[in-house]
């Protein structure tokens, strides 16, 4: 644990240094290329570290092997990044919104441990990708979960995986987040939005859909708050993601 903490600390210091170098206009393209290559190598080891930690802490659970194994087999020949590249061209959203990345299982575990989950809670991942978070939260916290995404293959495969894993309290919906209806999201009590790369217009549309929900529901966003006066930030805390350390905003609906 100490080694991973120290490694994370040095990686973040390095990322900050690279950001400063890139901000300076005088940096030559060769220097930038060098730093990009180094960053990619560091990122590879950083993600390997996160995965080893996950194996160490969760591999005693049979469901974890089944979930990871079936996801691996399902995306063995074409990974989520290439699926987003192919199907994203046909999706009615800007490519910027389709930047792919996954929340590590241990990170979503830590995030949700900040809230006192009840058996009556229902977790909704807005932009669920291939559904890792949706499967994990259901299996680890024993609460119903729903994943929503615009990419058809993610939803089609996630539905097959749900069946193969024998999960009855997990569901997936293929939908544009701009057009969510109360029927689709009304059962949710905890919403998770990894919209770091989302454009402002999409975030505003999502906000208007979430405003349909009752007072008291919780919303978790990354990097920035939801542009809505009906949601109040109750806590901000940094967590580790595959793309670095990110501020996580915990909201409660107040209006
Ligand atoms: C960064 S990934 C997050 C995956 C997952 N939430 C996680 O944390 O592991 C963002 C996802 O949002 C989806 N997305 C982007 N814009 C969307 C939209 N307008 N409607 C539905 N899904 C969208 C993308 O297809 C992508 O799978």
Write a brief caption for the model:
The protein has helices spanning 2-23, 29-58, 62-74, 80-88, 105-113, 132-141, 152-164, 182-185, 200-210, and strands at residues 123-126, 145-149, 170-174, 190-193, 218-222, 231-241, 244-253. The protein has 255 residues and is α/β, with parallel strands linked by helices.
Describe the structure.
- 47% of the residues lie in helices and 17% in strands.
- With 255 residues, the protein is α/β, with parallel strands linked by helices.
- It has 2 domains: 2-59; 71-253, 3-Layer(aba) Sandwich (Rossmann fold), CATH 3.40.50.
- It has a 7-stranded mixed beta sheet with strand order 3-2-1-4-5-7-6, covered by helices on one side.
- Helix 1 (2-23) runs antiparallel to helix 2 and helix 3 (62-74) packs antiparallel against helix 6 (132-141).
- It is globular.
- The model has no long low-confidence stretch (mean pLDDT 90).
């Amino acid at each position: 644990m100490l080694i991973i903490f120290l490694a994370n600390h040095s990686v973040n210091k390095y990322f900050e240094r690279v950001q400063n170098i890139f901000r300076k206009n005088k940096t030559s393209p060769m220097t930038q290329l060098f730093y990009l290559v180094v960053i990619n190598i560091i990122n590879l080891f950083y993600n390997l570290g996160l995965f080893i930690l996950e194996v160490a802490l969760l591999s005693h659970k049979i469901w974890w092997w089944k979930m990871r194994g079936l996801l691996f087999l399902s995306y063995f020949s074409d990974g989520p990044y290439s699926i987003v590249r192919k199907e994203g061209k046909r999706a009615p959203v800007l490519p910027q919104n389709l930047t792919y990345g996954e929340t590590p299982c241990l990170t979503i575990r830590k995030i949700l441990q900040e809230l006192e989950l009840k058996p009556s809670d229902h977790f909704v991942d807005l932009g669920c990708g291939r559904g890792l978070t949706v499967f994990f939260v259901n299996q680890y916290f024993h609460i119903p979960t729903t994943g929503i995404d615009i990419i058809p293959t993610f939803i089609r495969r996630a539905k097959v995986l749900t069946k193969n894993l024998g999960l009855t309290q997990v569901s997936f919906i293929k939908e544009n987040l701009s057009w969510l209806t109360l029927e689709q999201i009304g059962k949710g009590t905890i919403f998770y939005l990894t919209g770091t790369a989302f454009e402002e217009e999409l975030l505003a549309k999502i906000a208007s859909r979430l405003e349909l929900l009752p007072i008291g529901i919780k919303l978790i966003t990354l990097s920035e708050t939801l542009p809505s006066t009906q949601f109040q930030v109750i806590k901000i805390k940094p967590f580790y993601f595959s793309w670095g350390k990110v501020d996580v905003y915990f909201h409660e609906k107040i209006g």
